[in-house]
Amino acid sequence: MYNFLPIAYFQDQFLPFAEAKLSIATHALHYGTGAFGGLRGIPDPQRPQQILLFRLDRHCQRLSQSARFLHFDLSAKFIQTKITEFVQKNQPQTSFYIRPFVYTSDLGIAPRLHNIEKDFFIYGIELGDYLSPDGVSCRLSSWCRQEDRSLPLRGKISGAYITSSLAKTEAHASGFDEAILMNAQGKVSEASGMNIFVVRNGQILTPSADQDILEGITRASIIQLAQASGIEVIERPIDKSELFIADEVFLSGTAAKITPVKQIENYPLPTIRPITDKLRAKLTAITENRDPEYQHWVYVIPLQP
């Protein structure tokens, strides 16, 4: 069970979460014509009267771009303003996750994006670790990651996550924690809701943007941090056999943060993970606003006493 934050933003107003309700005839429910964002927030460990959000500007920009695929003009500035107000009204006291969502709110039955109402809401949940920080086991999914020629994969389109759901449940039913999806060319793409990184011979490898991945914000942050610390990062197609002989493999995402992979199929991976541990410690310090060099990545929201 989730503990939802008490206040939601819905239909242009803030109201109790329990009162934010949709009709069963809502267009997006039937056709997956929505797009969402997701970002973490924490109370500042050093100053409890303020909240820290990681890379809020990038999250708002991506959601605004995702909305454009739905022919919905929603500015990043507007999204950021409403998320800030949302946090101030809820005044969360523990680690939490924010879900902003744009969608076709009409009650029509025709699958279309023109001449149809759209809307925007925000809700949140308390959230600790999404995946075990000690590591997860993964299987290679029998499901294939969609192609950009059939879905706009540069956006977080809600309908696309049927594949992620199928892959995640298949992995769980097989005794694994997570799934790794291949693309239509048989190359490694991503996990059910995370990007993937492979460490070999001191280098970090990760599927490039042309491998039908979501261009993750945490992914981009990790690449920048690794390069700044002198670790070479190579973005290219990755074969599945490279996963089995990797020195380290880890997943990244807003919910997952940096999660090590301890096993892929029946291949156990090394338990000593110096690069994963280094990057995870760095990212944690940044999100807690303890790294002066990257304070511009942290958006501070003061709470009213």
Characteristic key phrases:
7 helices, 26% helix, 6-stranded antiparallel sheet, D-amino Acid Aminotransferase, Chain A, domain 2, globular, alpha+beta, D-amino Acid Aminotransferase, Chain A, domain 1, 2 domains, 305 residues, single chain, 9-stranded mixed sheet
Overview of this protein structure:
This protein has 305 residues and is α+β, with helices and mostly antiparallel strands. The chain folds into 2 domains: 7-126, Aminotransferase class 4, branched-chain amino acid transferase, N-terminal domain (D-amino Acid Aminotransferase, Chain A, domain 1), CATH 3.30.470.10; 136-272, D-amino Acid Aminotransferase, subunit A, domain 2 (D-amino Acid Aminotransferase, Chain A, domain 2), CATH 3.20.10. The protein is 26% helix and 30% strand. The protein has helices spanning 27-31, 56-69, 76-90, 161-173, 217-228, 240-244, 274-287; strands spanning 7-10, 13-16, 34-36, 39-43, 50-54, 96-104, 118-126, 136-144, 178-182, 188-191, 195-200, 203-206, 233-235, 248-253, 257-264, 267-268, 298-302. The strands form 3 sheets. Strands 8, 9, 10, 11, 12, 13, 14, 15 and 16 form a 9-stranded mixed β-sheet that branches. Strands 3, 4, 5, 6, 7 and 17 form a 6-stranded antiparallel β-sheet that branches. A two-stranded antiparallel ribbon has the order 1-2. A hairpin with a 2-residue loop joins strand 11 and strand 12. Helix 2 (56-69) packs across helix 3 (76-90). The relative contact order is 0.16.
